[in-house]
Every structure is written in structure tokens, then in C-alpha cells.
Amino acid sequence: MIMILIFSVFPTIASLVLAFSNIRLRAGSYQVQFVGLRNFRKQFFGTEQFHFLGTFTSISLLGWMVTIASAASLIWWLYRYAKRDFTILGFIGRLITASMGFGLALLFSATLFSGNPFGTLGVTIFYVIVGCTIQFLIGLGLAVLCAQPIKGRTFFRVVFFIPLMITPIGIGYSFRMLADTTKGPFSPVWQWIGLGDFGWANHAWTARLFIVIGDSWQWIPFIFVILLAALENVSRDQVEAGQVDGASGWQVFKEIIWPQIAPVAATVMLIRTIEAFKLVDLPNIMTSGGPGIATESMTLHSFFAWRALNLGDSAAIAYLLLFVTVVLCVSFFNLLVLKRLRPA
Hints:
single chain, mainly alpha, MetI-like fold, 2 domains, two-stranded antiparallel sheet, 2 strands, 3% strand, globular
């Protein structure tokens, strides 16, 4: 209990105090000034808005279409819940989820769909959604493959697990070297396909893509191992009965295998989503957050602010990250996991 207080509770409280303060460090001393919500207002409306939310000029027609479609979908979702099994607590939770969803839709409409650059919030959401989706699909595919009675499956299980044992720093430097089109080991290949002069780190989307690839290479083994363990516990009698009845491989997976591994899949995705929000090693090592702030996650944003001794801004960004993570993960758990556990 004492260790929990020292390494968890006290730092959390201290960070909360910093988030509402302005810290001035001086030789041999420091000065703490309470500033209220100023550190948070800076991220949304002040000098740090472009850094956290992105640059807003005007929303394009496509952006407005996405915003209106998102708002209509969320209103319809709330209406269906209110008509079906309404509870005050459940409606409040869904209202918070809908508000967060609309805010993110508006953010992406003003940046991604309007040709404006992302801020660190948008970059972080991109890493979470795209990265976790790719990692889950590939991890599930490899787990299904290695669960089959094929030759060498033990060898492949070991090989697929290796990336999880490598440090993020090693992975970051390795992918930075592999992607180097001029001096890296694959530079002849890049030259052969006509990309010898292409600087992937100088373009926002290619830089983000390489970071997602490196992150996926690191975390696919984690999803693979968990889902493989779940597949090994699937009832073989039910699978064989479905095959005897003439069900196709897809039907067996959809109707028999997936319902049994779905709770494990939801849990592993919840864990992976929480970890994805904390991505900091790869963008720091591979691109240093560049070009500009195109690959800078919220965690890296907080780290850079801390390194510049802007402790109040750093703590405020950390708590904004905590809020976004908690809302999205609780919504995910409530909508996908608890829904399966409730009686019909």
C-alpha cells in the first residue's frame, strides 16, 4: 500500500497541482503560482491551440458533410437507446461518449477533411485507431493460422513472438535505419524502385505511416499470443460438429470460434488501446515529432513541454490525455463488453 501511494497516488496529486499552476524555477529555489485553468485554456484557445488541436482556417464542404453525418448518427444512436432500455446513468454515459465523438468528428473535419495540419490530439487518435486496427487484424490472422495443424507452427509461434522482446528504443532505431533511403541497408532497393531521393521523414503522412508500421511490428506479437491462447481453448467438438454439418471455414469462425474468443479479443484491444495512447518512444526516436509536429503524440508533446521546463503545460497535457483515454476506453468497455454480458 505504501508503495502504491509513493509511486502512483502522490505523483498523480502532484501532477494535478502542477496542471493548475505556473512553476518558475530559479537557482536553488522555485516559485509556484496558482493560475487556475489557464494551462488548459492555452491548449484550446490560446498560444498552444495549433500545437494541441491543429491549425483551423475554414471547414471544407467535405468537412461539413462529415460533421453533419456524425451529428445525425450520434443523435439517432442516443434516440434508439432512449426508446429501448433507458436509464439515467446509462444515458449520461452515452451522452458523454456522443459529445466526445462529435468533438473528434469536428476536429477531423476541420483538419483532415479540410486540408489543415493535425495537432497532437489528432495525431494520437490516428495512431490509436489505425495502429490498433492493423495490429488486431494481423494478430488475429496469425493466431488463426498458427492454431491450424500445419508443419512448423511451433517455429512460427516463437518467431512471431520475438519482436515483443525487443526494446522500443531498439525498434525505433532499427526502423529509422531500414527506412533510410540513402544510407540504410535497403538503399539499393529504394534506388531500384525510384525512391532513392525520397525523404519519408519530410512528409507528414509517410512519417506517420512508418511510425505505425514500427509500432505494429512491436505489438502484433502481444495480440497474437493472447488470441492464440484463446483459440487453443475453443471447443474442438463444436468446430468439428460444424464442419460435419457442412459449414464453411468462414461460417465456423463466425458462428462458433468468434463468439468464444470475443471477450478475450475485447480485453486485449482495451489493453492495447490504453498503451497506444502512451506512444512516445517511436515518434521521438524516428522523427523527433517532425516534420514540424506532424508525428508528435500527446505523450511526446507533454515530454517536450517538460523538457522545456513548462511543467504546468506538461501536466495539463497529461491530464487531457488521461481524460481522453478514460472516456474512450470506458465507452469501449461499456458498449462492446458489458453489452455482451447483459441478459437479453
